[in-house]
Amino acid sequence: MRSLVKPEPASGLTLTDVAEVQPGAGEALIRVQKAAVCGTDLHIYEWDEWAQGIIAPPLTLGHEFVGEVVELGPGASRVHVGDRVTGEGHIVCGACRHCRAGRLHLCSNTRGLGVQRDGAFADYVVMPESNLWALHPDIPTQIAAFYDPLGNAAHCALSFDMVGEDVLITGAGPIGVMVAAICRFVGARHVVVTDVVDYRLELAAKAGASLTVNVQRETVEDAMAKLKMSNGFDRGIEVSGNADALPTMIDTMYNGGMIALLGFLPKSTTIDWNQVILKSLRLKGIYGREMYETWYKLTQMLRSGLDVTPVLTHQLPLGDYEQAFAAMREGQCGKIVLDIAD
Question: Is 80 a catalytic residue?
């Protein structure tokens, strides 16, 4: 079968033929239809410091996918052959304190699909059936291909009450764009999105942002003045991973504000902790999705009218993966979906 592989500890990927995979006990074999490219995949492609510390080549990449169940391993019975599914890419141990308490997203023994085990940039992928999410017919296949990061966005946006609140989102990458759409959908008043790439800010505007700010030309305070905001932001969502973004967010938060942190910030990031204390701010780290409540909520939001189609900018055949990674590197894209079966 075809597989997009990190063959060795160096920059680049290779599309090659590998041995077909087989499901083990409690697992399912999925014929992949579409798979989306993530920033994590770009880190692995470029073989940066993070990738060097966690990836053991050879490895098939890809953790965002949609496909059809074609075979079940021994004991698997929750899904059925023919089901259209996507999957939770965090594979947990099921035995630690958090897993046994139902807090699976906090499992410290998590293994990532396409990170610590072979992923979905291939004709077939094997997953524990407990990690599969059967898709409602209302959900378009091309949207289901990036349920994983859409779940990240939902986890961020639904962490706090959003009704009537003013929201600052730092970072207009795909997740920031989807966060903007969700915040608007669930009732936020003003949704302001910052970035340095106009292309991505335009996507955020299409997704429902009240105002976008290119911080190379204007400030968040300028946006507050345009919107006639008398105080600061009630909610902050940091998805840029930029060292300057979080301090700016804290400066412009209202007393009692709440901040969700998803972007991986560099160690050089510094903030004024006295502001955090004096403003009584609450900071929450976000990693992945709340399994599986987030999956349920995002499904029902999509079925009820949530529109995230502006974030889908490219659909390419698997063989054009180099074009996909180039677009990501240049910031001239939203979500890129690779057609595997087509």
Answer: no
